[in-house]
């Protein structure tokens, strides 16, 4: 005991901080399974019941888990399987096959993968099969052999299920669902997809073989649950080597979550997406600001992380523009105001710029027209402006109609942070010359 105690007291704050970084980063990046899926209780129960019926009682079935990206479809299935595998009988019996629409891009590859995952390569050997159905039938039959008449249950997980619908004749889907309907062998087919309209993609004969069971994983998470989740995600485990540091850290996290400004940031994040993946990114960025000199997570860290997450790529691009290009953007902004968002051409932008040079500017150089046209073309290349659809390529560049692809807010924000932006340019952006 004395040895343990001495280890506890001898951890320097540097060691503590790096331990914290290690534990939490692992949690956010490795996407470990949570103790229990948050806010998905009924879905969890439903899926567990269904898979149990296949794994224990040998009933065949099919089901789709549908929901937007990052809402926990994969996690739900893994949690259910974790519980299912705790049952001794299931652990010995159930076979699992994982296919992913992004990897198994055609049915031949998928079949080879099924054979490999079922460890039946040797059994198949050099046999040649007439059809996909024959081949699949052979595989399932092989599982039956050696057992007393009953076949081993197989769970087929089809991730990115919708992509399998693009395979030729939907052969794989047809055959798997067909097996799941007949009493051939106990199989459960679980499809995961983020396409809510996935059933529309299925051919009639495939659709009719599907059980039409669906689990919707649209997050019904409340903000309270979300906040609780943030707290538990950031908290250190009880067995943290330095108990005192661990306790202090957890207290500071609890306090942080009650902070009004933090709540505001999280509310904003929650409103834009309840997706846990983007939350993890936010927390990870905030965590990276923790170091020995500030060994706790502060509200400013979260604020800064949130700013980084929501930073606008286009507004960022403006920082790399030259002053002349920036002036053209401001000219276009004014043209947008004057003509109510109607398209404009280079000649109009040029006039607006010239007016500025003559009347207000004392810091911007008066460039020649070809130089200005070059800058204009650069903006087109960067796709900050875009030719209006249907504008003929025969028209001279100067008269082709274009639209600005930036809004008022983006321009003003970028100007605020543009390094050494001349004040007269800034003023011009705020008030037009008219
Ligand atoms: N309700 C939840 N409770 C706890 N953790 C969750 C929940 N929903 C999502 N997560 C976490 O969010 C991350 C993303 O979830 P997951 O990979 O399951 O999403 P998905 O729906 O499968 O997305 P995709 O469609 O991109 O495959 C995982 O780390 C998961 O643990
Ligand atoms: Mg997934």
UniProtKB/TrEMBL annotation:
The keyword Zinc does not apply. InterPro entries: AAA+_ATPase (IPR003593), AAA_16 (IPR041664), ORC4 (IPR016527), ORC4_C (IPR032705), P-loop_NTPase (IPR027417). The keyword RNA-binding does not apply. It is found in: Nucleus. The lineage of its organism: Eukaryota, Metazoa, Chordata, Craniata, Vertebrata. Keywords: ATP-binding, DNA replication, DNA-binding, Nucleotide-binding, Nucleus. One of its GO terms (molecular function) is ATP binding. It comes from the Eukaryota. GO terms for biological process: DNA replication initiation. Residues 59-220 form the AAA+ ATPase domain. Component of ORC, a complex composed of at least 6 subunits: ORC1, ORC2, ORC3, ORC4, ORC5 and ORC6. ORC is regulated in a cell-cycle dependent manner. It is sequentially assembled at the exit from anaphase of mitosis and disassembled as cells enter S phase. Interacts with DBF4. Interacts with POLQ. Component of the origin recognition complex (ORC) that binds origins of replication. Belongs to the ORC4 family. Gene3D superfamilies: P-loop containing nucleotide triphosphate hydrolases (3.40.50.300). One of its GO terms (cellular component) is cytoplasm. PANTHER family: ORIGIN RECOGNITION COMPLEX SUBUNIT 4. This is Origin recognition complex subunit 4.
């Amino acid at each position: 005991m004395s040895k343990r105690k001495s280890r506890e007291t001898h951890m320097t704050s540097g060691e503590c901080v790096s331990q914290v970084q290690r534990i939490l980063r692992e949690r956010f990046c490795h996407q470990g399974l949570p103790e229990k899926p948050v806010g998905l209780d009924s879905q969890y129960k439903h899926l567990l019941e269904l898979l149990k019926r296949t794994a224990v009682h040998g009933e065949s079935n099919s089901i789709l888990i549908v929901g937007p990206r990052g809402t926990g479809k994969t996690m739900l299935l893994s949690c259910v399987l974790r519980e299912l595998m705790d049952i001794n009988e299931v652990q010995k019996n159930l076979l699992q096959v994982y296919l992913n629409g992004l990897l198994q891009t055609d049915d031949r590859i998928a079949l080879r993968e099924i054979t490999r995952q079922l460890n039946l390569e040797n059994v198949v050997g050099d046999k040649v099969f007439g059809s996909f159905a024959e081949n699949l039938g052979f595989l399932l039959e092989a599982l039956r052999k050696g057992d007393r008449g009953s076949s081993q249950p197989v769970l087929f997980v089809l991730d990115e299920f919708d992509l399998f619908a693009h395979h030729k004749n939907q052969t794989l889907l047809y055959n798997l669902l067909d097996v799941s309907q007949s009493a051939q062998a106990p199989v459960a087919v679980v499809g995961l997809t983020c396409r809510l309209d996935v059933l529309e993609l299925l051919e009639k004969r495939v659709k009719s073989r599907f059980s039409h069971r669906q689990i919707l994983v649209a997050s019904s998470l409340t903000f309270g649950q979300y906040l609780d989740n943030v707290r538990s995600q950031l908290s250190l485990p009880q067995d943290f080597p330095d108990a005192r540091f661990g306790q202090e850290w957890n207290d500071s996290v609890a306090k942080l979550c009650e902070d009004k400004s933090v709540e505001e940031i999280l509310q904003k994040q929650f409103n834009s997406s309840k997706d846990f993946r983007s939350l993890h990114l936010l927390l990870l960025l905030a965590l990276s600001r923790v170091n020995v000199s500030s060994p706790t997570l502060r509200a400013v860290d979260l604020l800064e992380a949130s700013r980084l997450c929501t930073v606008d790529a286009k507004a960022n691009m403006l920082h790399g523009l030259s002053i002349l290009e920036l002036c053209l953007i401001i000219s276009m902004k004014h043209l947008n105001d004057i003509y109510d968002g109607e398209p404009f051409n280079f000649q109009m932008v040029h006039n607006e710029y010239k007016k500025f040079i003559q009347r207000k500017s004392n810091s911007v150089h008066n460039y020649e027209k070809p130089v200005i046209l070059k800058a204009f073309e650069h903006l087109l290349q960067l796709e900050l402006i875009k030719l209006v659809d249907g504008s003929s390529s025969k028209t001279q560049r100067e008269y082709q109609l274009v639209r600005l692809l930036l809004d008022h807010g983006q321009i003003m924000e970028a100007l605020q942070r543009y390094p050494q932006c001349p004040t007269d340019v800034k003023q011009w952006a705020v008030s037009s010359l008219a």
